[in-house]
User: What shape does this take?
Amino acid sequence: MSQILNDAKRRIKEVRQKDVDLLVLKDGKPVEGAVVSFRMKNHQFLFGSHCYMYSRYKTKEENDLFSELFVKMLNSTMMPFHWGEFEPRYREYNEPYISTLIDWAKKHNLKRKLHALIWHWVCPKWITYDSDIKERYKERISHLMSTYGDDFDFFDLANETTTNDEFENPVANWVKEYGPMNMLKFGSKLVRSYKPDAQLIYNDWNVHKEVYYDFLQEMRDNDIDVDIIGVQSHQHVSVWSQEETMRVLERAAAFGWPLHFPECSFNSGIPDGEINFLEGGKKNKWIEREEDLYTQAENARDFYTLVFSHPAVELLNWFDFTDHYWLGAPAGLVTDDLKVKPVYNALYDLIRREWHSDVDTATGTSGLCKARLFCGNYDITVAVNGEKITVNQDILRERFYAGGGDPIRLEISL
Assistant: This one.
């Protein structure tokens, strides 16, 4: 194991765990010998994937299996509002599909992100160069916020704007003419007129080039009203080195926003020829060997360890839950027919075992017990002399928490 990974494992214990002091009382007096259990119910950190395939299977059994595998490990998701797909014809929306996804995510208590409000790539065919793009976006965002605003925890305000000028379509031309900073100000102001506390994200994949960091600096210089920066990490062609991963983390975090890693991809295969990133990758071919399954798992495990170790990161989202979705790539956690891959098991071992806290202890003569716990939501059960009580309690870290400080002090009365 590299020194970078060793350092990350040590750092995880510092930045993702908190000390807890629990005092047990009865009739206002400390209780000695009370048996105490802490059972983790959910991570504060968000581990997710997109859920685009839910409801698209032919049978109830398949959709149920998708749900079972998804919620067994993950606690967040993102949903597709790409303009040309959500509204393929003017004022004709991709329903009931979207509402089905929302209802499913709510049922399973998943945090939810709307992806994405403004994006130059998926431009509807009914939008023309003569269209008033700003007015059309005003209508789109107003419809989305008034219809779905209360259904989502996060909103991608804009997506991949650093590559806007490489595209030729009405939306890309409008962003170029109106200006990216004006576009972001327009969008954030409109969103907040519907939901003042919306968690707005600027999301991009262009994170290895100076233009990305120049763009973030320009956002700071213009006081752009976003809450989080999204750092995409698709690695279909080449895997980031550990050094490059830490470099991206440090440089992105330096701007002072919390970070989400919303689109992470590793393949269990290699491309057969050049990858076509357009048209959803319909023409791509992949060579898939058994050994690639284990390479994917190893790459994912190490990358998750590095990202989870950084105090600025609050979400890590695997992109394709199932194989052969975007780009036709074998980049899923499960196969097309919902069989678990080694990468699923590797991440499950991290999220639900290594980074999970279940603690059994007992109070001393002072009625006090101590525990060190991964931050999240817990059921805390106290039992003594036939009496038993269970309370639900959040054990949370502050944003950018880097370790240290006083313990969290809790009190339970029998």
Remarks:
- The chain has a mean pLDDT of 96.
- The longest strand covers residues 17-26.
- The CA atoms of residues 105 and 380 lie 26 Å apart.
